[in-house]
Write a structure and sequence with these properties.
It contains 9 helices and 8 strands. By secondary structure, it is of the alpha/beta class. The chain has one domain: Rossmann fold (3-Layer(aba) Sandwich), CATH 3.40.50.150. It comes from Pipistrellus kuhlii.
């Protein structure tokens, strides 16, 4: 059984290379980065990068020629900067030409259209595990009902912007840590329709079945996703939830 308690882990300390020795995150959070399939020399955009776990994973592939890490919130990008300085050696940060910005991700297609080989769009969502265990900043609070109802539209806008920022032939990974179909498959389908209707851009959803089979002994996957893959927590594999869907921009 995989336990959820982290109290037995050693304290995070600075190691011999001058950076912190480990970063704690849900193992399922690595799947969108791995499935994105970075190749050496790729230009990469992490559109909603804070707090920075997936950004670190992108850098660990060693494939990023340029990495743009963005988040709308300046406080969150401040935390992202701290994570990068704490966990990534300076020479690696310089080699990968990491650029941290606080722009409105919904406008990225206008700012840097047709630019990136790989784009990760890990959108704001209901963060279901956090919302189950924490009252502070819980999006299911009655006072945040309107914000919660607007999430799918925001997610469609962010995914569409990520697709527009991708070069034709490039790949986009959409991900959430939600169980909601409205935030997962419906967002993917909505963004694809938006690009087809408004920009005459064709997008293909990639089949992740071979990728899923590599990890079926570690994670429990929901068997009936219309598109993409969804990791569901259970007692024997307490990871997720994590939804991810890979797309290729064809035109």
């Amino acid at each position: 059984m995989v336990h959820s308690s982290i109290t037995l882990l050693p304290a995070i300390m600075r190691g011999s290379f001058g950076v912190m020795d480990y970063y704690l995150m849900d193992a399922a959070s690595l799947l969108p980065v791995l499935a994105l399939g970075l190749q050496p020399g790729d230009t990469v955009l992490d559109l909603c990068a804070a707090p920075g776990g997936k950004t670190l994973a992108l850098l660990q592939t060693g494939c990023c020629r340029n990495l743009a890490a963005n988040d709308l919130s300046t406080s969150r990008t401040g935390r992202l900067q701290n994570v990068l300085h704490s966990y990534v050696p300076e020479d690696i940060r310089n080699k990968s030409r990491v650029r941290v910005t606080s722009w409105d991700g919904r406008k990225w297609g206008e700012l840097e259209g047709d630019t990136y080989d790989r784009v990760l769009v890990d959108v704001p969502c209901t963060t279901d595990r956090h919302s189950l265990h924490e009252e502070e900043n819980n999006i299911f609070q009655r006072s945040r009902k309107k914000e919660r109802q607007k999430l799918p539209m925001l997610q469609v806008q962010l995914l569409a912007a990520g697709l527009l920022a991708t070069k034709p032939g490039g790949y986009v990974m959409y991900s959430t840590c939600s169980l909601s179909h409205l935030q997962n498959e419906y967002v993917v389908q909505g963004a694809i329709e938006l690009l087809a209707n408004q920009y005459n851009i064709e997008v293909r959803v990639e089949d992740l079945t071979p990728f899923r089979k590599l990890f079926m002994d570690t994670f429990f996957f929901f068997p009936s996703c219309q598109v993409g893959e969804l990791v569901i927590p259970n007692l024997m594999a307490n990871f997720g939830p994590m939804y991810f869907c890979k797309m290729c921009r064809l035109t």
